[in-house]
Structure formats: C-alpha cells, structure tokens
Write a structure and sequence with these properties.
Blueprint lengths: L1 E12 L6 E12 L3 E5 L6 H8 L7 E6 L2 E2 L5 H11 E5 L10 H12 L5 H10 L15 H13 L5 E5 L7 H18 L3 E5 L2 H4 L4 E6 L2 E7 L2
Length: 226
C-alpha cells in the first residue's frame, strides 16, 4: 500500500529561458513500511524533492499525497499541523534545541502539539537508541552520533506516517554512520516505519529496500534491493 504518492513534480526558479529546473517532472510512490533511498550528485534535485515531499516548500506544478491527504489542498495552518503529526524529519545538522535536555528534545514535537505523551513508546525508542542513561544530558555533552540518535528519536516520537532523512550521516564518521543507519533500519522493522532518505553515498544507499536515482531534476533509475 502506498503511503506517499508524488505526481509530475516540478520546481522551477526564475522564468523563461533563464529558469532553473530543480525538478522537472518527478513521479514516485513510496510503499508503507519501506526504506527508500534517493541518491544523486550535488545539485541533482534530491534535497529539493525532499523539501517538497515534506511540505517545507511548494512545487511549481504537480501533486503530493501522504497518508491519503493532498498537501496542496491544505492551508498554512493545516500543513503545519500535518507536518508535526505525520512527517518526521532528520537533518544532517541534528537541529537539537541546545537549552533542552535529551528527554525534552525528544518530546518537544508532542508538547508543541499538545499531544498526550506515550511514555512506554518514548522509553522504548530511548532504549533502542541507547540513551536511557543520558536523558538529562544537554546536547553539547553528546557526541555527533548521540545527537543524531536523539534527533531520530524526536522524529519518531509522534509516530509519523513517514520519516524523511536528509543526509542523516553527513556529519558522522563511517563507523558511526553505519550505527545510525542500522538504527533507522531497526526502527523500520520494529515499528513498520516508512523511511525516505536522501544521500550521495552509494554504500549507505545499499541498506535501503529501494534505491531511486535522480539527476538533473529527473528520476533516471529505480531499483529494488534483494
């Protein structure tokens, strides 16, 4: 069953002959519970695509549906609430709030939404990321890998329909990168979490179920890993 469907996505900057076509007619479908990697060189359009799929930017043309909802049919308030509840984000730069503890960072999306905190679920993901002993630590007391683990837990706290990861290992060494990716894959298996990750690293992409290659704003290859 498809959890995300994007149809004929285009994103142009400027107009006329000088227009930059960051995306030029991308159509893709992401199955519920799958782990999909989008790969491409710098400037290929993969980050633009992720921002559109996450509702952080709007396409010039095309449509996006997530969990049966059309993003373009939402006003700004509806889209903000939808992102908070249905889309988890993991970025290269971690984006933890420096004055909040590990625990406070993890539950922040739930508190912003006024949602009830499922303590059993929160502690289960905290246990999976190996941070039970550091819940009261501040971000500046953590290593890069630990900060990214907290960012992943925060993204999962609201049990989103899909998790979007933008170069999640870009600031990590190779060993820590493998640990973080193993964690992502483990969450996918344990909770049936749908994960869409962009990366320029071919080795990292091999961990995904599906690999989509994008170049010059177009999908040039899709393959399913055995």
């Amino acid at each position: 069953m498809s959890i995300l469907q994007a149809t004929n996505l285009k994103k142009y900057y400027g107009s006329g002959s000088s227009a930059v076509k960051a995306l030029n007619g991308v159509t893709l479908s992401v199955e519920k519970g799958s782990f999909t990697a989008i790969v491409g060189s710098s400037g290929s359009g993969k980050s633009t695509l992720l921002h559109l799929l996450g509702g952080l930017d709007t396409p010039t043309e095309g449509s996006i549906q997530i969990a049966g909802r059309s993003l373009k049919e939402m006003d700004d308030t509806e889209l903000t609430l939808f992102r908070r509840r249905q889309i988890g984000f993991v970025f290269q730069s971690f984006n933890l709030v420096p004055m909040l503890t590990v625990y406070e960072n993890i539950i922040l999306p739930l508190e912003l939404d006024g949602s009830k905190i499922d303590q059993d679920f929160i502690m289960e993901i905290v246990s999976m990321i190996g941070m039970k002993e550091k819940l009261s630590s501040m971000p500046n007391q953590l290593s890069g890998g630990e900060q990214q683990r907290v960012a992943i837990a925060r993204a999962l706290a609201a049990k989103p329909a899909i998790l979007l990861a933008d170069e999640p290992t870009g600031n990590l060494d190779s060993r820590t990168s493998q640990d973080v990716l193993g964690l992502l894959k483990g969450f996918g298996t344990r909770f049936g979490q749908t994960i869409l990750m962009i990366t320029h690293n071919e080795a990292i992409a091999q961990l995904a179920d599906t690999i989509i290659r994008i170049e010059d704003g177009k999908i040039v290859e899709s393959r399913w890993e055995s």
